[in-house]
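A quick aside before the break. I want you to see a complete sequence-to-structure record at least once, exactly as it would be stored in a machine-readable document. Don't worry about memorizing anything.
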Amino acid sequence: MKLVVAALIVREDKILICQRTEEQTMPLQWEFPGGKVEPGEDLKEALHRELEEELGIDAVIGRKTAAVQHTYAGGSSVELYFFRVDHFEGELENRIFHDVRWVERKELPTYDFLEADIKLVQDISVGRLL
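That is the input. The structure line, written in tokens, reads:
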């Protein structure tokens, strides 16, 4: 099972979402920024590193808001940990994604998110989370 961390970066009533490139697995689907945890790495440290690599920001990683385990139809499994991020330094820079957008919470379900994120997206959009 792959261990993954992701950020729920919040600004006013909007959340940052990112679209995978055509070359990635599950192409052009939307997700929250983050990535794989390296062996021996702390979850928050991993997320801080990933946000710097993907978006060029120095983020203050807040509290864990959700944990999800999901197995995709092809058999790959992920264990995802989501952390809230309210503050970061630096200018957001799209370094690896097809697109990056600030989206209002209620609009989240209109985007084609990764399967593992769908329940979380629904919870955020109706105000059950965050």
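Two observations worth writing down. Strands lie at 2-11, 14-19, 30-31, 34-36, 58-60, 64-71, 77-85, 87-89, 99-104. The helical segments are 43-55, 118-125. We'll return to this after the break.
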